[in-house]
Write a structure and sequence with these properties.
InterPro entries: CPA3_antiporter_subunitC, NUOK/Mnh_C1-like. This protein is mainly alpha-helical. The protein has four helices and no strands. The longest helix has 31 residues.
Length: 114
Amino acid sequence: MVGLEACIFVTVIIGFLALIYKPNLFMKIIAMDVMSTGVIAYYCLTASRTGFLTPIVTGEKSTLTYADPVPQAVILTAIVIGLSIQALMLVATMKLAQENPTLEVKAIEKQYWP
């Protein structure tokens, strides 16, 4: 479990560092997606520690541990919101690409701010 947490943490850190150091807007969008995937993976990992079985109500008493369905709904919502934000950022980048010959942040800042 510790190794999986470390891999997820490295994924989030790689996405964060790429978000800071990549000068291209398209690469920044990809870095945000990588970072969000790592956060969602970590949330899924911590939510699955309580149980792995689907909580289906039956008449029988059971001593098994069940997974909480609330984190699953939160994760589905986070995935949908992340997808819509990524689509919005890509549309904005396409609009910028129509006006600029490059997607480098410094060049765009020079053009719009004196």
